[in-house]
Amino acid sequence: MTRDRIALRGLRARGHHGVFGFERREGQDFVVDAVLHLDTAAAAASDDVGDTVHYGLLADRLVAIVTGEPVNLIETLAERLADACLAEPLVDRAEVTVHKPSAPIDHEFADVAVTVVRDRTGPGGPGEPGAAGPARVPDGRGSRT
Fold first, then answer.
1. What pLDDT digit, counting tens, does each position of 33-63 carry?
2. Cβ(70)–Cβ(141) below 8 Å
3. Which one of 17, 37, 80, 100 is the catalytic residue?
4. With the C-alpha atoms ordered 114, 96, 14, 138, is the resulting torsion angle positive or negative?
5. Mind listing the pLDDT tens digit for each residue in 109-126?
6. Does the annotation count 8 as an active-site position?
7. Burial of 46: CB neighbours in 10 Å, binned 0-12, 13-18, 19+
8. What is the DSSP string of the chain?
9. How much is the pTM?
């Protein structure tokens, strides 16, 4: 298992996700945390961004997904974001948390979040069944309804 990690935390973007019509119409902020597991030894040795994951470009792709095609559930959004992380060739595993700080809950709360952990070999980890070729990479484009 890879011990190195790159973490991008607190990435904020406005999306139109949710099961209620007003969430789709008005939108709300979502906050994304992504932890990528990869071997950073080559990048450390070369001191070249081409030998690692360019987290600025990854942030652009993740924001495009959050601001793109609406989905009902943050579970679905987290899955799409994890797919984009795994599309990076060096990434072995991705842990993605989607926070929905303005979730429509009638009670005071600190946070609502869903975390998914995905790796190249399948949903449960190395050696698990379920690996199905390369990860899908949603382009983040889509129409809002």
1. 999 999 999 999 999 999 999 999 999 999 9
2. no
3. 100
4. negative
5. 999 999 999 998 755 444
6. no
7. exposed
8. ----EEEEEEEEEEE--SSSHHHHHH-EEEEEEEEEE---HHHHHHT-GGGS--HHHHHHHHHHHHTSS--S-HHHHHHHHHHHHHTSTT-SEEEEEEE-TT---SS--S--EEEEEEETTBTTSTT-TT--SSPP---S-----
9. 0.82
